[in-house]
Amino acid sequence: MFLAIRELKHSKLRYLLIGMIMVLVALLVFIISGLANGLSSDNASSIQNMKADYFVMEHDSKNKLNRSIISMDMLEELRGEPEVQTAEGLGQMMATLNKIGSNEKTDVTIFATNGKGILAPEVMEGTSYDDKVQGEAVADRSLKEIGYKLGDSFQDELSGKVFTIVGFTENQSYSHAPVVYMNVAGWREINPVLKNHAKNSISALAVQLDAKDEETIRETLPDGVTLLSKDELLQSIPGFKEEQATLTMMIAFLFVIAAFVLAVFFYVITLQKTNQLGVLKALGANTVYLAKSIVGQVMLLAVVCIVISVTLTYGVTLIMPEGMPFELRPDLVIKYSLLLLVVSALGSMLSLYRVAKIDALDAIGRVS
């Protein structure tokens, strides 16, 4: 590391320019990964946060909750299976709410489930809804941010039914719309799709079970229904798979670009230092020592640039608009930081090849 640090101090401007490029690339990686994670949460946090591993849905629904209608009669049958830890009904529909006393309209997703079951949201303010009382609802905190408060009433645009907000939860959204939770009876009253179905219909049954018991439960299900994992249900949410694939591809390209940029920069620098490296070899420095010096130089520069990039990323989040979905968890920061270090090390491989090919006598002969 002695040689690496001495060279960094001697050629400050050269390595400052390389560092700036590394900082910008790493900054883009962290910002785009934060946006990808934020969009994922904004599109499906209600499902991601559910305490369920699998979902029983109508076979012909194409894995979409809003197309699935099944009978609640299967709920007790599932609960009776020894492999099933617990099960609960889940109703879903999209709706437009009219705030009572205002002309404001809001598009939301309605989720219906047992207010004390495994799918019930954690109430951050107020109380949960009562399964035996009609007209109570728990709304995502994003509705509070646009003017709703505890005790406010809203009307479902299609059915005309009125509900009162008795509590607020958080991190509950579906298909980029805030989620409003209510009991199953209230959901059945406002869902127009259920008019031609039995009164005990529901969109899906959420199930907790071990992965090893998945096939056993599949075999017990009647015809016309299917068992989906949580990941399969997430992938079927409109736009979820496409958004994540696009942003993931952008992140992958950034890693490739980072590898090529670093490889070219350090290879050019190595070419410029051919004479000096030849002299060092003539003085007794072996290829391994010089290779360690180059890799150490790259890794030291990469670590400093990554730390600066992470700091800048969290600084940028402070000036981002409130409505922008951005979520950068510490585990993602660590994951991408390690990947950037690996990419940096790979980018130095071309330089190491050049160092190995340097002939001390030829290099000294070219010294003017």
Helix content: 40-55%
Biggest β-sheet, characterized?
Answer: 6 strands, mixed, barrel
How much of the polypeptide forms β-strand, as a percent range?
15-25%
Net shape: elongated
Would you list the SSEs in sequence order as H and E? HHEEHEEEEHEEEEHEEHEHHHHHHH
**Cα radius of gyration in angstroms:** 29 Å
What report would you give on this structure?
- This protein is an alpha+beta fold and 368 residues long.
- The chain contains 13 helices and 13 strands.
- A 6-stranded mixed β-barrel has the order 3-4-10-6-8-7.
- The longest helix has 37 residues.
- The chain starts with a helix and ends with a helix.
Label this structure with key terms:
alpha+beta; six-stranded mixed β-barrel; 368 residues; 13 strands; single chain; 13 helices; two-stranded antiparallel ribbon; elongated
Please write out the topology:
Blueprint: H1 2-10, H2 12-48, E1 54-58, E2 70-71, H3 73-79, E3 86-99, E4 105-112, E5 125-126, E6 136-140, H4 141-145, E7 153-156, E8 162-169, E9 173-174, E10 177-182, H5 184-190, E11 201-202, E12 204-208, H6 214-220, E13 225-229, H7 230-235, H8 240-272, H9 274-282, H10 287-317, H11 330-347, H12 349-357, H13 360-365
Parallel strand pairs: 4-10, 6-8
Antiparallel strand pairs: 1-12, 1-13, 2-11, 3-4, 3-7, 3-12, 5-8, 6-10, 7-8, 9-10
